[in-house]
Specification:
The chain is an alpha/beta fold. The chain has two domains: 250 residues, Metallo-beta-lactamase, Chain A (4-Layer Sandwich), CATH 3.60.15.10; 55 residues, no CATH class. It is 32% helix and 23% strand. The strands form four sheets. The chain has an eight-stranded mixed beta sheet with strand order 8-7-5-3-2-1-16-17. A seven-stranded mixed beta sheet has the order 9-10-11-12-13-14-15. A hairpin with a 7-residue loop joins strand 1 and strand 2.
Amino acid sequence: MKQIWKQTWRQRLAAALIQLLMVLAMAGVGIRMPVQAAEKNAVTQSGEMKVHFLDVGQGLSILAQSEGKTMIYDGGDRKTSRFVVSYLKEHGVSKIDYLISSHYDADHMAGLIGCLNAFDVKNVISSNYVHTSKLYQSFVKAVKSDGLKMQHPAVGKTYKFGRGSFEILAPKTIEAKGSNNNSVAIKLMNGENSFVFTGDAEHESEAAMCNSSIDLSCDVLVPGHHGSATATSWDFLQKTVPEYAVISCGTNNKYGHPDKDTMDKLQSMDIQVYRTDKQGTIVVTSDGANLNWSAEPCNDYTPGDDSDQGTRSTSEVQQEASQTAIGEHVWVSATGNKYHKTNHCGNMNPNTAKEEPRAEAEAQGLEPCKKCY
């Protein structure tokens, strides 16, 4: 009998609570439950992606983590291989889902051999060419020892990575005698945030990326070849339009990286700059909409070599061209908006073309024909 009474009492209490809630609802009184807030916080946390730009001196190594998935893009040089492995272990890495070797230069690849030996690697992505170095042979051997194959995905292939994804941007073609322009470039995405890594890709590879149908715009760009003037062309910057640039290079390196030309471009476009040679390892956290950095940008636009004066400015080139053009004559068609070296360029009608000083043609707003000049 006692047990039956307890059950009835609970039923009565439940019925009373239901009646109370109905009365409150009819009265327009709502009770807010913390479930929605908790769910929102859980989504934000699970949607995070951390990107670590490791200070590996004159080299490159980038660690990305998202929802238990790990990517390592390049591994730095031999001297920093132990540091890279230790850093990954300190950040809870035991498995690498994607190990990406942009190309086979030592300052990008050596540390990856240590990663292959220290961690459970699931996929290896690399460039489809053969290097002549012994280090390359060691890399190939380490991949095979893990029972893996070196994957060479085509441009445009997309991989899921944690909450986000990444897409292959380059190389479109392989240079038989090249290395830098064979770099595997990727665009890493997490919600509205994106990052572009290009290894040592130079102007030729950048041009191919610009001519592709892939959206290159990003929040964060790692300028190619450690900020060398052989990379980070104007066209590439105008396609990527990054808010931040992270330059990975060594302090007082013998190459003078980053070059003045590159830094001048970044400064002229008001791109905020982080530098491993000035700030060490840099970490940024993406929640899919915003970026939270471990430090403020240094915005140090000085070149690695203090004596680097860069190339001549645009105004200097234009001034010299103008002075050269004073005594030069050009041909102008009756309807065109270009001036030419000859009166029969392309579809020009020689009978209606007229000759005039180049300075006069330029004063009229005419531009040089790309076929002639």
